[in-house]
UniProtKB/TrEMBL annotation:
Entry protein name: Nicotinamide mononucleotide transporter PnuC
Membrane topology per record: Multi-pass membrane protein
Homology family: Belongs to the nicotinamide ribonucleoside (NR) uptake permease (TC 4.B.1) family.
TM annotation in the entry: 20-41, 47-64, 71-88, 94-113, 134-152, 158-176, 183-202, 208-228
Organism: Subdoligranulum variabile DSM 15176
Gene Ontology CC: plasma membrane
Amino acid sequence: MYRRMRFFTEVIMSAKLKYFTKAEWTLWGVSVLMIVGTFLLFQQSDYLSLTASLIGVTALIFNAKGNPFGQVLGIAFCLLYGYISFTCSYYGEMITYLGMTAPMSLYALICWLRHPYGAGRAEVKVGSISRREGVFAVVLSIIVTVVFYFILRAFGTANLLPSTLSVTTSFLAVYLTARRSPAFAVAYAANDLVLILLWGLAVAEDPSYLSVVVCFVMFFANDIYGFINWSRMRQRQATAA
Protein backbone atom coordinates (compact mmCIF):
# COMPACT_ATOMS: atom_id res chain seq x y z
CA MET A 1 0.00 0.00 0.00
CA TYR A 2 2.82 2.41 0.91
CA ARG A 3 4.58 1.66 -2.38
CA ARG A 4 1.44 2.48 -4.36
CA MET A 5 0.82 5.71 -2.45
CA ARG A 6 4.42 6.80 -3.01
CA PHE A 7 4.11 6.02 -6.72
CA PHE A 8 0.87 8.03 -6.97
CA THR A 9 2.60 10.98 -5.26
CA GLU A 10 5.42 10.76 -7.78
CA VAL A 11 2.86 10.75 -10.58
CA ILE A 12 1.31 14.02 -9.39
CA MET A 13 4.67 15.68 -8.73
CA SER A 14 6.11 14.66 -12.11
CA ALA A 15 4.51 17.58 -14.01
CA LYS A 16 7.62 19.77 -13.98
CA LEU A 17 9.60 21.40 -16.75
CA LYS A 18 12.49 18.92 -16.90
CA TYR A 19 10.15 15.95 -16.92
CA PHE A 20 9.34 16.49 -20.62
CA THR A 21 11.89 16.64 -23.43
CA LYS A 22 12.11 19.60 -25.79
CA ALA A 23 10.41 17.53 -28.48
CA GLU A 24 7.53 16.73 -26.11
CA TRP A 25 7.12 20.35 -25.07
CA THR A 26 7.13 21.32 -28.75
CA LEU A 27 4.50 18.70 -29.63
CA TRP A 28 2.27 19.78 -26.75
CA GLY A 29 2.78 23.49 -27.52
CA VAL A 30 1.97 23.08 -31.21
CA SER A 31 -1.13 21.06 -30.30
CA VAL A 32 -2.36 23.77 -27.93
CA LEU A 33 -1.62 26.55 -30.42
CA MET A 34 -3.47 24.74 -33.21
CA ILE A 35 -6.53 24.12 -31.07
CA VAL A 36 -6.69 27.59 -29.53
CA GLY A 37 -5.78 29.25 -32.85
CA THR A 38 -8.63 27.50 -34.67
CA PHE A 39 -11.00 28.44 -31.88
CA LEU A 40 -10.06 32.14 -32.09
CA LEU A 41 -9.75 32.28 -35.90
CA PHE A 42 -13.31 31.13 -36.44
CA GLN A 43 -14.62 33.14 -33.47
CA GLN A 44 -16.16 30.10 -31.87
CA SER A 45 -17.95 30.25 -28.55
CA ASP A 46 -18.05 26.58 -27.55
CA TYR A 47 -15.65 26.86 -24.63
CA LEU A 48 -16.59 23.39 -23.42
CA SER A 49 -15.19 21.81 -26.60
CA LEU A 50 -12.08 23.95 -26.25
CA THR A 51 -11.58 22.83 -22.66
CA ALA A 52 -12.07 19.18 -23.57
CA SER A 53 -9.57 19.47 -26.42
CA LEU A 54 -6.89 21.03 -24.21
CA ILE A 55 -7.41 18.41 -21.52
CA GLY A 56 -7.22 15.71 -24.17
CA VAL A 57 -3.87 16.72 -25.69
CA THR A 58 -2.40 17.19 -22.22
CA ALA A 59 -3.56 13.70 -21.27
CA LEU A 60 -1.89 12.24 -24.35
CA ILE A 61 1.52 13.73 -23.63
CA PHE A 62 1.42 12.16 -20.14
CA ASN A 63 0.23 8.85 -21.63
CA ALA A 64 3.13 8.96 -24.08
CA LYS A 65 5.45 9.06 -21.06
CA GLY A 66 3.66 6.11 -19.46
CA ASN A 67 2.49 8.39 -16.65
CA PRO A 68 -0.78 7.33 -14.96
CA PHE A 69 -1.75 10.99 -14.54
CA GLY A 70 -2.62 10.86 -18.24
CA GLN A 71 -5.37 8.37 -17.42
CA VAL A 72 -6.78 10.75 -14.81
CA LEU A 73 -6.97 13.52 -17.41
CA GLY A 74 -8.32 11.01 -19.92
CA ILE A 75 -11.28 10.24 -17.68
CA ALA A 76 -12.06 13.96 -17.43
CA PHE A 77 -11.87 14.19 -21.22
CA CYS A 78 -14.28 11.26 -21.59
CA LEU A 79 -16.89 12.99 -19.43
CA LEU A 80 -16.67 16.27 -21.35
CA TYR A 81 -16.52 14.61 -24.76
CA GLY A 82 -19.52 12.43 -23.92
CA TYR A 83 -21.60 15.52 -23.21
CA ILE A 84 -20.40 17.28 -26.37
CA SER A 85 -21.33 14.19 -28.41
CA PHE A 86 -24.80 14.25 -26.87
CA THR A 87 -25.34 17.85 -28.01
CA CYS A 88 -24.42 16.79 -31.58
CA SER A 89 -26.70 13.70 -31.50
CA TYR A 90 -23.66 11.44 -31.77
CA TYR A 91 -25.17 9.01 -29.32
CA GLY A 92 -22.64 6.38 -30.34
CA GLU A 93 -19.77 8.55 -29.16
CA MET A 94 -21.68 9.49 -26.01
CA ILE A 95 -22.47 5.89 -25.09
CA THR A 96 -18.99 4.71 -26.05
CA TYR A 97 -17.10 7.27 -23.99
CA LEU A 98 -19.40 7.46 -20.98
CA GLY A 99 -20.43 3.82 -20.88
CA MET A 100 -17.23 2.12 -22.03
CA THR A 101 -14.13 4.29 -22.43
CA ALA A 102 -14.44 6.19 -19.13
CA PRO A 103 -14.96 3.06 -16.94
CA MET A 104 -12.19 1.18 -18.76
CA SER A 105 -9.88 4.19 -18.42
CA LEU A 106 -10.50 4.03 -14.68
CA TYR A 107 -9.61 0.34 -14.76
CA ALA A 108 -6.50 1.16 -16.83
CA LEU A 109 -5.51 3.77 -14.24
CA ILE A 110 -5.70 1.15 -11.50
CA CYS A 111 -3.65 -1.28 -13.60
CA TRP A 112 -0.99 1.35 -14.30
CA LEU A 113 -0.75 2.30 -10.62
CA ARG A 114 -0.31 -1.36 -9.70
CA HIS A 115 2.55 -1.83 -12.16
CA PRO A 116 5.08 0.99 -11.72
CA TYR A 117 8.50 0.67 -13.28
CA GLY A 118 11.57 1.12 -11.10
CA ALA A 119 11.84 3.38 -8.08
CA GLY A 120 11.36 7.12 -8.06
CA ARG A 121 9.89 7.17 -11.59
CA ALA A 122 6.34 8.11 -12.53
CA GLU A 123 6.38 5.51 -15.28
CA VAL A 124 4.36 2.37 -15.81
CA LYS A 125 6.01 -0.95 -16.56
CA VAL A 126 5.45 -1.78 -20.22
CA GLY A 127 3.47 -4.97 -20.66
CA SER A 128 2.93 -7.34 -23.55
CA ILE A 129 0.24 -9.59 -24.92
CA SER A 130 0.56 -12.95 -26.60
CA ARG A 131 -0.64 -13.65 -30.13
CA ARG A 132 -3.48 -15.67 -28.65
CA GLU A 133 -4.61 -12.78 -26.48
CA GLY A 134 -4.32 -10.43 -29.45
CA VAL A 135 -6.75 -12.61 -31.40
CA PHE A 136 -9.05 -12.69 -28.36
CA ALA A 137 -8.98 -8.88 -28.17
CA VAL A 138 -9.91 -8.54 -31.85
CA VAL A 139 -12.75 -11.08 -31.59
CA LEU A 140 -14.07 -9.40 -28.44
CA SER A 141 -13.94 -6.01 -30.21
CA ILE A 142 -15.99 -7.40 -33.09
CA ILE A 143 -18.60 -8.76 -30.68
CA VAL A 144 -18.82 -5.41 -28.88
CA THR A 145 -19.13 -3.66 -32.24
CA VAL A 146 -22.05 -5.82 -33.39
CA VAL A 147 -23.89 -5.27 -30.10
CA PHE A 148 -23.32 -1.51 -30.21
CA TYR A 149 -24.41 -1.31 -33.86
CA PHE A 150 -27.94 -2.34 -32.96
CA ILE A 151 -27.95 -0.15 -29.85
CA LEU A 152 -26.82 2.89 -31.83
CA ARG A 153 -29.26 2.21 -34.62
CA ALA A 154 -32.09 2.04 -32.09
CA PHE A 155 -31.04 5.48 -30.79
CA GLY A 156 -31.10 6.94 -34.27
CA THR A 157 -27.40 7.79 -34.15
CA ALA A 158 -26.17 10.23 -36.79
CA ASN A 159 -23.58 8.80 -39.25
CA LEU A 160 -24.17 5.27 -37.96
CA LEU A 161 -21.35 3.42 -39.74
CA PRO A 162 -18.41 5.65 -38.69
CA SER A 163 -19.93 5.89 -35.20
CA THR A 164 -19.96 2.08 -35.00
CA LEU A 165 -16.40 1.84 -36.31
CA SER A 166 -15.39 4.28 -33.58
CA VAL A 167 -16.68 1.77 -31.03
CA THR A 168 -14.40 -0.91 -32.46
CA THR A 169 -11.24 1.18 -32.34
CA SER A 170 -12.11 2.71 -28.95
CA PHE A 171 -12.69 -0.66 -27.29
CA LEU A 172 -9.51 -2.15 -28.71
CA ALA A 173 -7.56 0.93 -27.61
CA VAL A 174 -8.74 0.89 -23.99
CA TYR A 175 -8.24 -2.89 -23.78
CA LEU A 176 -4.63 -2.55 -24.90
CA THR A 177 -4.16 0.44 -22.58
CA ALA A 178 -5.20 -1.63 -19.58
CA ARG A 179 -2.78 -4.36 -20.70
CA ARG A 180 0.01 -1.73 -20.93
CA SER A 181 0.80 -2.67 -24.51
CA PRO A 182 2.50 -0.08 -26.79
CA ALA A 183 -0.06 -1.06 -29.45
CA PHE A 184 -2.71 0.92 -27.55
CA ALA A 185 -1.37 4.10 -29.17
CA VAL A 186 -1.82 2.59 -32.65
CA ALA A 187 -5.42 1.69 -31.85
CA TYR A 188 -6.06 5.22 -30.58
CA ALA A 189 -4.47 6.65 -33.75
CA ALA A 190 -6.91 4.57 -35.81
CA ASN A 191 -9.73 5.87 -33.66
CA ASP A 192 -8.52 9.43 -34.27
CA LEU A 193 -8.84 8.94 -38.04
CA VAL A 194 -12.41 7.70 -37.62
CA LEU A 195 -13.27 10.68 -35.42
CA ILE A 196 -11.70 13.14 -37.86
CA LEU A 197 -14.12 11.80 -40.46
CA LEU A 198 -17.05 11.75 -38.06
CA TRP A 199 -16.63 15.33 -36.82
CA GLY A 200 -15.72 16.50 -40.31
CA LEU A 201 -19.25 15.52 -41.31
CA ALA A 202 -20.57 17.52 -38.36
CA VAL A 203 -18.58 20.60 -39.44
CA ALA A 204 -20.39 20.55 -42.77
CA GLU A 205 -23.58 21.34 -40.84
CA ASP A 206 -22.15 23.41 -37.98
CA PRO A 207 -18.68 25.08 -38.30
CA SER A 208 -18.50 25.47 -34.53
CA TYR A 209 -17.28 21.87 -34.32
CA LEU A 210 -14.14 22.63 -36.35
CA SER A 211 -12.05 22.90 -33.20
CA VAL A 212 -13.01 19.30 -32.37
CA VAL A 213 -11.67 18.17 -35.77
CA VAL A 214 -8.40 20.02 -35.19
CA CYS A 215 -8.31 18.44 -31.73
CA PHE A 216 -8.37 14.92 -33.16
CA VAL A 217 -5.80 15.81 -35.83
CA MET A 218 -3.45 16.76 -33.01
CA PHE A 219 -4.53 13.67 -31.07
CA PHE A 220 -3.39 11.61 -34.04
CA ALA A 221 0.06 13.23 -34.01
CA ASN A 222 0.35 12.69 -30.23
CA ASP A 223 -0.71 9.04 -30.47
CA ILE A 224 1.89 8.37 -33.16
CA TYR A 225 4.53 9.86 -30.86
CA GLY A 226 3.09 7.82 -27.98
CA PHE A 227 3.70 4.58 -29.87
CA ILE A 228 7.26 5.63 -30.72
CA ASN A 229 8.06 6.56 -27.12
CA TRP A 230 6.46 3.43 -25.67
CA SER A 231 8.59 1.34 -28.06
CA ARG A 232 11.64 3.13 -26.66
CA MET A 233 10.40 2.57 -23.10
CA ARG A 234 9.96 -1.14 -23.74
CA GLN A 235 13.47 -1.44 -25.13
CA ARG A 236 14.99 0.60 -22.28
CA GLN A 237 13.16 -1.37 -19.60
CA ALA A 238 14.10 -4.69 -21.21
CA THR A 239 17.75 -3.64 -21.40
CA ALA A 240 17.76 -2.56 -17.76
CA ALA A 241 16.18 -5.84 -16.70
